[in-house]
Design a protein that fits this description.
Length: 211
């Protein structure tokens, strides 16, 4: 974040996200990885809510895939969220749906197909991340913090997003779990080569630990 940053989010060239919120000024290009460290948890919440349409963007604050986010109609904004995926500090799973339902329902909604195209890939990702297949039948409340984040990552990856957002990914993880989480970026790159990765942290939390 620079004192010379523009007052409005005007992307230069090909850009997935251009942001000019008060606490976060950055551009994220396809295939790139960008880390943003914000001063306060409130700044982080505002950024995440604005990115995913939970908080309306003011003109000039946020550009998504070359267009000012303030200009999107509600239906357009909802459709655009198919191009974004996030792994939150607690995973961000729907608590009253089993893990398998959390995984396949968003992917089915995005692709307008049944669950069968995603079953083999989801099971392969479970294996690659060392997750017990029995987790698929559990509710998120019975998972560890790492397991919730891993399931949320798989859920997002199945949707083939253009941008994967890791929100405080390493928070509340042991050193061993952090090493396992380090695979998320590699798996995303292997399946979404032109996809961009945005890492969002609060400055005081976990400096120097990246996944």
């Amino acid at each position: 974040m620079s004192a010379s940053a523009p007052a409005a989010a005007r992307p230069t060239g090909e850009c997935a996200i251009a942001c000019a919120l008060g606490g976060a000024v950055f551009e994220l290009r396809p295939g790139a990885t960008q880390e943003i460290r914000l001063s306060t948890p409130e700044d982080k919440v505002r950024l995440m809510d604005t990115l995913f349409g939970l908080c309306p963007a003011r003109p000039g604050e946020l550009s998504l895939f070359g267009r000012d986010a303030a200009t999107f109609a509600p239906a357009e904004r909802l459709a655009l969220n198919r191009r974004l995926a996030a792994v939150g500090p607690e995973g961000g799973l729907i608590s009253n749906l089993k893990v398998w339902e959390n995984l396949v329902l968003p992917a089915c909604w995005t692709s307008r197909t049944g669950p069968s195209p995603f079953e083999a890939e989801a099971r392969a990702l479970f294996d690659e991340l060392g997750l017990d297949a029995a987790l698929a039948g559990r509710l998120p409340g019975r998972l560890t913090g790492f397991e919730r984040k891993a399931v949320a990552f798989i859920r997002g990856l199945l949707m083939r997003p253009d941008v994967m957002v890791f929100d405080s990914l390493l928070e509340h993880l042991s050193e061993t779990e952090r090493q396992r989480a380090a695979r998320f970026g590699d798996l995303f790159r292997a399946r979404c080569m032109r996809g961009a990765i945005l890492r969002v942290e609060v400055a005081r939390a976990g400096a120097g630990n990246h996944a």
